[in-house]
């Protein structure tokens, strides 16, 4: 019992060391070792040495020794024995359909490294708890991969770390490329068999390891960060293999909040307070996305305006095509006038298309257009622009109440000089940093040198990274 406790203490310390080393190497663990399932509680104990299950282990060990006579299969055993993630990824290159490298596939590589680094330590405690003798030790015979014998002697056999890692890799890669799941999983199965052929593990070790891998991957699916990284990995795979439509590619987009942390977000189309009166299709989260170029320019605007005492308040940025399609369906239903008093009381409902308030294409969908206003840091209130966002009417035009080119106010009974001046503060700051104003909306600006002038994107509005 004392010896067993020492093995468990050593295992716990080893898990902690693995986590520390992973973090030191820039790895993001989705869960700590303590947060992952305790495999001692999940797994059945390994077979005793007198039952039929152990008899099967012996028969499979003999089968494995026969397989060593096949030169091609034996070569795979040596390939699968290398305890190195880059070598592991190389094993799956053909069934996965793409070479996985840190430089060539950074999102897939990061996702796999993070996932396996989270799952790997779970094997340590059951290995120490059961401390099962390996086949080559019990039979006093050499392994096929003799160079492993010194390192593996005295280390618990149950479950198999190689098999767990190989099967987890197969499960994860099958989620990135589900079209090749059959061949990927078959290679993951063979990876475990290689440990039986090598003489490193019993068949029951390998069988348990596949369960360990499935338990680990299931746990990862409860991590929001894991799910974000999985989507990025899928996106990268589809893009690199020509399976991703250019309009679904969000790799050149960023969250505005990541670039301008103090920006205020009031994403109207995620709410019901908009001219449609319901959440708009494609807005899955209340976030604002822009192309990297547009976001960087907007950060310069923010820095400029903060010197004048203002923060930016964002109403909308990137807008997926499905949202524009939603607007089109709403526009065709002339009987829906729920939000008319708030957004279009001055415009006949049946003339919204004709007057250009609703169209089949939107500059927002190209990813470099933003709708915004100013927030006064002194008063802690939104700046009065003399009209609300998304008001359908002449009062929303930048030239209503004055000349935007000269900044000169024209007295009228709807827009005050101060309100017109406030519009000009926003307009001039945006133009100084490369944005072009829209002639019909004081809040609407598009990056002059937008990177995707002819691409209308379709991916939904949601957090890109966490």
Report what the structure shows.
With 466 residues, the chain is an alpha+beta fold. The chain folds into two domains: 2-240, Vanadium-containing Chloroperoxidase, domain 1, CATH 1.20.144; 248-447, 2-Layer Sandwich (Muramoyl-pentapeptide Carboxypeptidase, domain 2). It has 19 helices and ten strands. Strands 2, 4, 5, 6, 9 and 10 form a six-stranded mixed β-sheet that branches. Strand 7 and strand 8 (408-409) form a beta hairpin. Helix 1 packs antiparallel against helix 8. The longest helix is centred in the first third of the chain and has 23 residues, at 2-24. Residues 6-11 have low confidence and may be disordered.
CATH topology name of the largest domain:
Vanadium-containing Chloroperoxidase, domain 1
How much of the sequence lies in strands comes to 5-15%
Runs in which pLDDT lies below 50 for 5 or more consecutive residues are 6-11
| Count of individual domains | 2
Distance between the termini: 45 Å
Structural class: alpha+beta
| Shape, per Cα inertia axes | elongated
Helical fraction = 40-55%
Discrete helix count: 19
> Which CATH architecture of the largest domain would you pick?
Up-down Bundle
CATH class of the largest domain: Mainly Alpha
Q: Which sheet architecture does the biggest sheet show? A: 6 strands, mixed
Rg, Cα atoms, Å: 30 Å
Give a nutshell description of this structure.
Strand 7 (402-403) and strand 8 (408-409) form a beta hairpin.
């Amino acid at each position: 019992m004392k010896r067993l406790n020492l093995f468990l203490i050593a295992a716990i310390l080893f898990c902690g060391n693995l986590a520390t080393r992973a973090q030191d190497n820039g790895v993001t663990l989705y869960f700590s070792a303590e947060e992952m399932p305790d495999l001692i509680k999940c797994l059945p104990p390994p077979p005793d040495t007198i039952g039929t299950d152990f008899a099967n282990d012996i028969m499979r060990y003999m089968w494995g020794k026969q397989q060593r006579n096949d030169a091609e299969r034996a070569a795979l055993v040596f390939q699968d024995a290398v305890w190195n993630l880059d070598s592991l990824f190389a094993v799956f290159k053909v069934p996965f359909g793409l070479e996985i490298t840190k430089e060539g596939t950074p999102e897939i590589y990061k996702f796999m490294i993070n996932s396996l680094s989270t799952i790997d330590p779970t094997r340590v405690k059951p290995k120490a708890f059961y401390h099962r003798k390996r086949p080559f030790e019990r039979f006093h015979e050499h392994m096929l991969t003799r160079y492993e014998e010194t390192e593996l002697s005295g280390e618990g056999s149950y479950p198999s770390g190689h098999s767990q890692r190989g099967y987890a890799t197969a499960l994860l890669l099958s989620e990135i490329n589900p079209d090749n799941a059959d061949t990927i999983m078959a290679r993951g199965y063979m990876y475990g068999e290689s440990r039986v052929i090598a003489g490193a593990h019993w068949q029951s070790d390998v069988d348990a390891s596949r369960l360990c891998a499935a338990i680990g991957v299931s746990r990862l699916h409860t991590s929001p960060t894991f799910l974000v990284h999985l989507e990025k990995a899928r996106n990268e795979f589809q893009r690199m293999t020509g399976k991703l439509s250019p309009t679904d590619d969000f790799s050149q987009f960023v969250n505005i909040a990541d670039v301008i942390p103090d920006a205020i977000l009031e994403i109207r189309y995620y709410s019901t307070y908009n001219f449609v009166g319901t959440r708009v299709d494609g807005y899955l989260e209340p976030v604002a996305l822009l192309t990297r170029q547009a976001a960087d320019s907007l950060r310069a605007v923010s820095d400029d305006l903060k010197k004048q005492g203002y923060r930016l308040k964002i109403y909308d940025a990137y807008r997926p095509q499905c949202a524009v399609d939603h607007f089109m369906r709403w526009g065709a239903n002339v009987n829906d006038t729920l939000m008319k008093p708030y957004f279009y009381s001055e415009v006949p409902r049946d003339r919204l298309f004709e007057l250009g308030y609703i169209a089949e294409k939107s500059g927002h969908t190209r990813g470099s257009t933003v709708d915004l206003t100013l927030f006064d840091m002194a008063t802690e209130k939104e700046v009065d622009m003399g009209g609300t966002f998304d008001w359908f009417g002449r009062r929303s035009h930048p030239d209503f109440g004055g000349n935007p080119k000269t900044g000169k106010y024209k007295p009228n009974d709807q827009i005050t000089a101060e309100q017109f001046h406030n519009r000009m503060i926003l307009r001039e700051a945006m133009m100084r940093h490369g944005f072009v104003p829209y002639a019909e909306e004081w809040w609407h600006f598009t990056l002059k040198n937008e990177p995707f002038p002819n691409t209308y994107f379709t991916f939904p509005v949601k957090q890109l990274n966490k």
